[in-house]
Structures are given as structure tokens and as C-alpha cells.
Amino acid sequence: MAELTLTRPARLRPLQAGLALALFGTVLFALVLARQPALEGPDATALEQLLLWHSLLPRAATALLAGAALGLSGALLQRVLRNPIADPSTLGIAAGAQLALTLAIAFAPALLAFSREGTAFAGGILAVALVLAMSWRRGFEPVTVVVAGMTLSLMAGAMSAALILARGDYVFSLFIWGAGALHQQNWQPALLIGTRLALGAGAALLLLRPLELMMLDDAAARSLGMAVQGMRLAIIALAVWLAASVVSQVGVIGFVGLAAPAFARLGGARRPGAVLLAAPLIGALMLWITDSLVQLTASGGGDLIPTGAAVGLLGGPLLLWLLPRLPASAPQPLRATGHARRLRRPGRALALLAAGATLIAILALLAGRDLEGWALTTGPLLAELAVFRIPRIVAAAAAGGLLGAAGAIMQRLTGNPLAGPEVLGVSAGAGVGLALALTLSPAPSAALLLAASAGGALGALALVLLMAAWTGFAAERLLLCGIALGCTGFALLSAVFAAGGPGSFRLLAWMSGSTDRVGANEAWMLAAAALVLLLPVAVLGRWLEILPLGAGVSAALGVPVGASQLALTLLAALMTGVAAFFVGPLSLVGLIGPHLARLTGFASGRSFVFASALIGAGVLLLADWLARMLAFPYQLPTGLLAALVGGPYLIWLLQRGGGRHG
Amino acid sequence: MRSGPGLSRRALLAAPLALAAPGARAESAALRVATVDWALLETLLGMGITPVAAAELVLFRQVAVEPPVPPSVIDIGLRGAPNFEALRLARPDLIFSSNYYAEMEPTLRLIAPVETLSIYRTGDPPFARAEAAAARIGALTGREEAAGALIARVNAQIDAERGDLARHAGRPVLVLNLGDSRHFRVFGADSLFGEVLVRLGLANAWGDRTSYAASAPIGLEALARFPEAFLVILRPVPPDAARVLSTSALWNALPNVRDHRLAVLDSVDPFGGLPTAARFARLLSAALRAEGDAARQGGSLG
């Protein structure tokens, strides 16, 4: 992906703006100190002193240091991956750390007593090591690194959610951690992050020259005598180390690493040195100001929303506001598919795929377990159990098909292999709608939840389309816009989790992706929606072949560029939104479907989308059946199983270097 | 009551034995009941009714602990994702559900008539609703006397504990969960524990500011506002929280911690029914009466 080069608005004076922000932060913090409630009792004065020194001051220090570390980490990652939307979470650090914590809680609580921080750190590092191992063969090509990171994040996230659901103990602590609460009761986190930040900044200083060379392409950098791979590895390791230290101390604070470098560039920082200096400062102020606002809005009953979630809430709109200021760049042309073969008779291959999916559906209908063991269900028992099995089968097939197709459309449209359907922010919107209904209604019915989820998805969709239309459908802007929206949405969700209560378990079930609540009505509605949404692909398929060639070529070939992009985005977003309610936000299916379809050789736009849909349906059908069978009578989340069925295969493809993406 | 117009006569009639003429009251053993809700499960067990199937028993035995679940009860999986096929194979005549599971009610109705009894609704005191749920279960299963006995037993026990705690009357108590070494969650006036506190003659130090289900995690420093309160910490305490807090300057300087005015109680289901209320009252009363002993133990969180 191209580097975002930001034009510098003449009226913005970075230094003054920075000082103004710092002053604002100081005023807010003074307000926080002034508004501390007076304590009662004989120990009041001593306690107030203690609170100041052991709670308020370390909290501010932690916010500043964590923000700076994340800003530096994001700046390093964006530079080295040449990807403006790279940040610690794109690499799977947060998800890896969360999985490690969850695993430790479930299976080795003693490990946590030994070192909670160390456990999270190990998970983050392991995730990144896996991501790098996967992309080794492709020379850490930035795009591959990000795809691998995404894949790993999704798998780790689904596994964490499933574990939390299956084990009630200590979930409260995980929710807090997931929302990034900054309360402190000693200086230890601040000191830990501070020392790592100091070491990291020193190392970054030493790496400054290699970082500047990285602006050149690999060949040019190599000709200047740089060991490109080794240097890239070192810089990534440094960035990960910084991010993992923050994640392990205070939890998930996703947005700062993404936003701080972007703001730095917006403020006019061009050279790596300037960005590396500005991004940590901006990150520190961002998190500090947010945390002060969180404290000022807190009631006696605690913060309204944890800081990590709040910064996501504030950060999303900021990024949206930034969008129109980014210069447009043409969509990346599709990479040549190299040795990949082209199917001579895609129609026949499609029929084969359809037959395969049908076979899996039949297996799912007939084979199962009862209270005694495995059994092939037939006769009157089948008639009895079919009312439970058929809706799930229909829902899994339809949702898998929709996600596969949406992923295929998005990847063709944006030319970015990272563009799984959730990049549109629509799934997160559906989740927010769901969360609202769960919070506000004492006894939410299936119909209410469905309506709320659809409302949330449509709201997010309207926002994305509005922003996309405003910015002229540049692929990068669409992605950034969707990510900003998704970021905000998931931040809200993590705040709901942190509040706890039974609603959060329902949300968690949604996050982990389960089809088990689907009744007959919903299943047939979903199937009808799938048909309605998939049929237009037959007509619009041509656009998918022409649009990736660029706006100029497309217009010359008579394709209405803006309108066709709008139509395709709308279609993909609707597909995602509909599927999201039933199988959660997990879109590994939306990544796997298109990758496998491309590998099989479906090249034309139309057959590519349909093949992705069929593969997606097959994967989700298989996953859903396994989810019902493996731990009977306990049901595993379908989303998790989809990740476990398809994920390793995707990883294998990537590692083999055979998976070309476009 | 909570079922509103919902429990339809139809459902009652469909549960074949439930409403026979008073003289010909059915044997409760003949009515096969199942439940997806934990509060209703413990209420059933507390009334001596063994359901044929219930949800998430592995965790129930750890979190709710009492009453013990007989091995004959079929585990139908997670409460959030019960296995409908397994529930179908258990062949219940009547399924008890609550507002948390409203979404899956249409599917449950494919298996057997469903009775929805909701104990926890925002702003409604749960204790009375827990009693009403027991009474309703009694009416539907023909075990009114068992329901009456459970209600009487729990109330009598709480009254007796109240007598034992006479010298603590009006004492402020803060019931909380530790999330990690920096956060806790508190049980407000409209939680079951909040209500039991009042029934025990104690005072909820938190006041009526917030309900359990709606409160975000609270920073540990907020405890400094309640120097007078007796702290009741519900297990599980995360291992690292116990470790870090024992060395924390702030924690150890809190007047309640310094003076050992705290107790760690065994796990109690925060969304339980009458048996949970009795369990909480018993554990809390024992902890308060043993306050001196706790001081000798040094208020360990382990």
C-alpha cells in the first residue's frame, strides 16, 4: 500500500497546536485534581495524600507514557510496513496477548499470580513471531504481514471469546483489560512502560538512518548497502516490544498507535525523524487528555467508560474528520496473478463447489450426537431434530455465502487483501445496535435484537457511504473510514463488556460468532436475503473486472466509476450487515473464500464472487457442524470453528507463498 | 406477576399434569421440568424438585455451589447457547426460562411449554421476585407446599442471622468483586446481595447509587470514600490481584484493610435465587461474627 503523503495545511502551525494541546491537557488534569471528592474520617488527610501519590499521579504518568509508547510503536510500524493503517493491533499483538491471558486464566492461574504482565507479553510476542514466520517466504512484504496479522487476530479473538464464555471465573478482569482501564494504585505500570519507552526511543534513534532508507524501495535500499530484511525485522521487533509492554500493563488501547502518526504527518512531519518525534508526543497528549475527560465525567459509580474504549470513541470521529484532508490516490492496480492458473471452465467448477457445499449440508443434517454417542439420525427422530438442525444449516450456508461474496467484492474494489468485510465497519455497527438493545431492554426478543442489529448495521453503512461519497470512493479512504467506524463500534462494545452483566455474555456470544439462536423464521429470512443480494452480482460482475484497472481505464470502457463503486460497496456492506447478526463479526470466511477462489483459478469477476460465496458457505457449514459436535452437549461458537477450520489452511497458503492476493 | 399475560392457559393445559383438580394433585416426579436459568435451577433444587435437564452445570457447581445438583440432571450446555437437541432428548414437559433467554423462547417452545420467570429486572427488588418465582414454580408443578417451605425457610434463616448480628445492626457493608489489582465492582441496593444486607439489619455502604448490572469497573481508589465500611469480597479473587494487593501501599492504607474490617466469602452467584440469598446471608453472618479471627489471619485475600 502506498504511503499516505499528507499535504500540510498552511494555517496549521504544528508547534503552536502542540503547545495548545499540552496546555489543554494541563488544565484538564488540574480540574481532575481539584474535583477529587473530600474524604471523611480521622484518616482523611493521610488518605488524600496517598490517593494523590499512589493513584492520581501514577495514572496521569501511565496515560502519558502509554500514549507515547503506542505513538512511537505505531509510527515505526507504519513506516516499516509502508501501510498507513498499520498499528499494534493490526499485527495481532493485542489479540495474542488477550488469548495468552485468557488461556492462563482458564488453565494456569498460577502463571498469572507469577506475572500477569509477562503472560500477556509472551502472547503478544508469540503472535507477532507467528505473523513474521508466515510472511518469511514473501520477504515480509508489508501486505502479507498485515494479512497474516489480521488472520491471527481473528483466530485469537474468537478463541478468547469462546474461552471466556466457557469459563465464568475471572471474566470480569478480562473485560476490564479488554477495555483498557487506566486506574492505578502504584507506580509500577508507569515505571515499566517508562523504562521500555526510554529504551525504545534510544533504539529508534539508532535506527533512524535505516528508517529513512526504508522510504526507498527494497532494491534501492539494498543497493545502498542495507540488509533490508534484517533491519525490517529489528524495527518490527522494537515496535512490538513497545506495544506489548503497554498492552500487558493497561490493556487494549488500540487507536493511539494508528492515529498519532497520522496526526503527526497531518501536522507537517515528513521525514521519519520528525514523525518519530511527533507521534509519541501526540500519542501521549491524546491519551492523557482522554483519560482526564474520562475522570471528569465519572460519577460516584465509576467511570462511564474505560479510557481505552473512550480513546477509541474519540479517535474514530477524528480519523473520519481527517479523511477529506488526505489526498486521493488511485486504487492500487491488481497485482498480476503470476503463475496462478485460470480455470478454463469456471461454470463446471462452480457446479462442483455447489455440490460439495450440498454434501456438507446433508452430512450436517444427518450425522450427529445424542446423549449416548454418535448416531446417524433417521426416521421420526430426524423429523423431530430437523426443526433445530435445518435453520442452522440454512443460516450457516447463507451467511457463509454472503461473507464470501462480500469479501470478494471488497478485495476487488479496494485492491487490498486486508479488506475483509469487517473493514467496512458494518459488523461493528450491527454489534452496537445489539448492545443498545441488550442494555435498554429487560427481555430482548429475537425480533428486537435482529431489528436493532440491522439498524446498527444500516446506520454504519449510511455513515460509510456518506464518507465514501464525500471523499470520492478512493479505496484507501473507504478502508480508513470503515476502520475508524469499526474502531469506534468495538470501543463501545468493550465498554459494554466492562460494565458486565448478563447482556455482556450475549454480546460475547455474538462476538464469538454463533448460529445457534437462529430460528426457522430468521433462517429463511437470511436465505431470502442471500438470494436477493447475490443475484445482482451476475449483472455487476463486469464492473469487478474493469474497476481494478483504475478510474481512467474504467471510464474509457464506459463504466460509471462513482456509481459502480457506490453500488458495489452498498452490496458488500448489505451482505456483511445481514450476515453479521447471525454469525458475528468474525470474517475469516470473508478472507478465506476469496483467497481459495483465486487460488483455484476463478478469474472473471462474476465467477470469482460466486466461487467465494460457495467456498464461504462450505466452510461455515462445516464449521457449524463441528461446533455442534465436538463438545456435545456444549456447543462451540461457529465463528471460532470457522477460524480453526479455515485459518490454518490460509496460513499454510501464505507460508507456501502460493496465495496471491489482489 | 413477571410472566404477565405470557403464561398462557394454553401452556398450562399443555403441561398435562400441572393443573389437575386440587384433589387429584399430580405427583411432582411425573412432571418433567427443565430450566436454562440458574436462579430457577437453584430454586427448583431448593424445593426438592430435580429437573431432567439444566444448563451449564459444570460452572454452576463452582459458582453457585448450593444446592448440589444430582448427577441425573442432563447438562444441556452453556446458558447462552443451550443445546436444543439435548434438551429435546431429555423430553421435558415444562421449561422454565427467564428474561435473559427471551430471545430463544420461540425455539424452546418447540420442545415444551415455556414459563418465563424473571427475577432480575432493572429497578425491581429481586428478593420479592425470587419468592414469587418459587411460588409460581410451586403452583405449576403442584408443589405449593414445597415452595412455601422454601420461602419460609430462607426468611427464617435470614431472620435468625439478623438476630445473631444484632450488635452489628446498621453497620455499613460494601459487597464487591475484585476484577484485578486495580478495579472492583460493587453490588448496589437493587442487587440481591444489597437486599439481603438490609434484611440482615446491615446498611449497604454504597447507598442506592447504582445497580450491579449497570456499573462500570470502579478504580480501587474509590474505596477510600468508605473508611467505615466492612468490606465483603466475593470469590473468585484473581490470583494476581491477591498478590499485588498484599504489597500495595494504597490498599494496605485503607482504614478497613488496615483494621482488618474485611472478609473474603466463597463464591456466590450474583444472579441467584432464594437459595443464593440464604447462602449469602449465612456466609456473611459467619464472616461478621468471626471478624476477630479474620484480624488474626491478617485479612488475606487468598
- Per the principal axes of the C-alpha atoms, what is the gross shape of chain B? globular
CATH architecture of the largest domain in chain B: 3-Layer(aba) Sandwich
Tell me, briefly, the overall form of chain A.
globular
CATH topology of the largest domain in chain B: Rossmann fold
Q: Average pLDDT across residues of chain A?
A: 79
Helical residues, percent of chain B = 25-40%
CATH superfamily of the largest domain in chain A: ABC transporter involved in vitamin B12 uptake, BtuC
Helix-strand sequence of chain A: HHHHHHHHHHHHHHEEHHHHHHHHHHH
Fraction in helix of chain A: over 70%
Q: Count all strands of chain A and give the number.
A: 2
Structural domain count of chain B:
2
Structural class estimated from helices and strands of chain A: mainly alpha
Task: Report how far apart the termini of chain A are.
Answer: 11 Å
Number of helices of chain A: 25
Question: Care to give the gist of this entry?
Answer:
Chain B: Residues 32-292 form the Fe/B12 periplasmic-binding domain. Chain A is mainly alpha-helical and 662 residues long. In chain A, 74% of the residues lie in helices and 1% in strands.
Give keywords:
heterodimer, A: 662 residues, mainly alpha, ABC transporter involved in vitamin B12 uptake, BtuC, 2 domains, two-stranded antiparallel sheet, 2 strands, 74% helix, globular, disordered N terminus, disordered C terminus, B: 302 residues, alpha/beta, Rossmann fold, six-stranded mixed β-sheet, five-stranded parallel β-sheet, 13 helices, membrane (chain A), cell membrane (chain A), ABC_BtuC-like (chain A), transmembrane helix (chain A), ABC_transptr_permease_BtuC (chain A)
